[in-house]
Design goal:
The structure is a homodimer.
Chain A: H1 4-11, H2 15-23, H3 30-43, H4 49-56, E1 61-66, H5 73-87, E2 91-96, H6 101-113, E3 118-121, E4 138-141, E5 151-154, H7 156-169, E6 174-179, H8 185-198, E7 204-209, H9 214-227, E8 233-236, H10 239-251, E9 261-266, H11 270-273, E10 279-282, H12 285-300, E11 309-312, E12 315-317
């Protein structure tokens, strides 16, 4: 395979000139540029990325930290990040944190040593001081880490308001909100939207905390249907919790949507695979991943950000777990 | 942060000696080793991975090529690969190929330039000559690329035989096999198992080709239920196809499992989220990912493989889409 010396020889310039050309640093005459480009094409030369990252102190690797890629929300997010990253010549290092600060720190340390160019981080941790001293750009996705880190989130309050309003419009009068973990910003915002939508309405409401995992949601949904046998609506803070509630309700002989209506939040593909299909407040997961990636690459490439915090609208998707008006 | 010169100075040895020590190449006296180790610990020195990968011509990055991370099988596989890789100090670069040879080649070229240490590849491509000249180790996962590449697969013939036998034991007499793409090894093997299990039995069978995507499976399942209104069993070559068939059957008023029984293949988490839960032939996805990763790391680290081709057993999981005997 051709190396930088071959290119210099073929282009009749010095190795230093080729290096300046490749790293886009320092002066290279137009004539030299042309002969180097011709030499690169004719020799089918591929610059060695590791050697280049040493001189530019940068690779085109982006670390993507997610709680767990097997949670249905994150493959769709990872897909968007990878698609956009690739179109700019970047690749993605996948990191599952299991919501543990130690694992997030381990990955940050391992990848910073490899001159990773930046991080996109989705963390459930309520306190994340280990992001404060990181020497490369970071964009927070789906959750706010702290005010100095640029962030892409869904408008969770408005989304929850729309989802709850739909339940009310379809006739629900006695509604449980399965809310996400207390203290987690997006979960708090979704409860806020639920409360705003029901505040001055003639409905009974109950709020029950529920983690995002399927197994935990199944147990809590079962308890809800026993404790509150008269409810006719559930607004869940995630599609996974909503689908767990659907499964439990059907197993307990409740008809969805005639007897009990359910609205989820997230918009994962899974929602259209269940029967009946899940009515949900869909985040634009792909758009969020794409925004975050473009913002990060701008920061990596020293382009200034026009917006530091981007909020993406959510959209109601009506399927079969709510009644047609 | 301490650099290699600080370590050399602290240990009273030359930089070259520290470098030989770090790269495990060339002679370093026992006394020098001890003082370098002490210096590294006392200075909290972390070797710069990019600089080291230049001298050892190797990074601890593993490229993971999958068709599409949003297909529910692959997040579970990616999770296993990442867990095991991390325990050996390797990290994963995620690559979605969309089953396109060009995209697989692009990633191989990009990552080989970055001195990726090896690849784990899941490809649906029937011909994949672009893997022949790759200069780093490769392990094929879930599908065989060619005979020279070590492979981890499920025993698909046996798995399909067990799944079909269960349908028969539960009383199905008129069964459609929704088979995967013709020519794809694992899909061919699953049909083989289906045929073997039904060959000498008093049952009617039909074989219909169906891709693995949910949308395509929905359309094909609908056509099957119209073309063959008398069927009482479906054996699907993937859980996604099976779940599409379940949804379509329920929408068309067929009762599952009383009127129609369904068995899937894969064992993804999704199968337990639908109602009724999906009876399926479960691959041990985590074990497959873990095996493949350990094999690849052995190859990267020049340890000989005891087995070149590993076959993992599949296991029947009985849930609600088949009748209790």
């Amino acid at each position: 395979m051709a190396n930088i010396k071959d290119v210099a020889k073929h282009a009749s310039v010095s190795v230093a000139t080729v290096s300046r050309f490749l790293n886009k640093k320092g002066y290279v005459s137009e004539a030299a540029k042309e002969s180097i480009e011709a030499a690169i094409a004719s020799l089918n030369y591929r610059p060695n990325q590791v050697a280049r990252s040493l001189s530019t102190k940068r690779t085109n690797l982006i670390g993507l930290i997610v709680p767990d890629i097997t949670n249905p929300f994150f493959p769709e997010l990872a897909r968007a990040v990878e698609d956009i990253a690739l179109s700019y010549g970047y690749t993605i290092v996948l990191c599952n944190s299991d919501e543990k600060a130690e694992k997030e720190e381990l990955y940050i340390n391992m990848l910073t040593q490899k001159y990773v160019a930046g991080f996109i981080v989705t963390t459930n941790l309520l306190k994340a001081p280990h992001y404060e001293d990181v020497s490369v750009p970071i964009v927070a996705l789906d959750r706010t880490i702290n005010l100095s880190i640029p962030t892409v989130t869904t408008d969770n309050v408005e989304g929850a308001r729309i989802g709850t309003a739909h339940l009310l419009a379809c006739g629900a009068k006695n509604i449980v909100c399965m809310r996400g973990p207390v203290g987690l910003g997006l979960a708090d915002d979704r409860v806020k939207g639920f409360i705003e939508a029901t505040a001055d309405k003639d409905v009974q409401t109950h709020i029950v905390e529920c983690p995002f995992s399927f197994e935990a949601s199944e147990k809590i949904a079962e308890k809800i249907l026993i404790d509150y046998p008269d409810i006719d609506g559930i607004f869940a803070s995630s599609d996974t919790s909503a689908i767990a509630a659907l499964k439990v309700a059907q197993a307990m002989g409740r008809h969805v949507p005639n007897d009990l209506q359910i609205v989820g939040f997230d918009g994962v593909q899974l929602g259209k695979m269940v029967s009946p299909g899940l009515t949900t407040v869909a985040q634009d997961i792909y758009k969020m991943g794409a925004y975050a990636t473009r913002m990060l690459i701008k920061m990596i490439e020293d382009t200034s950000l026009t917006e530091k915090n981007v909020t993406v609208s959510a959209e109601l998707i009506v399927r079969g777990t709510t009644r047609k008006d």
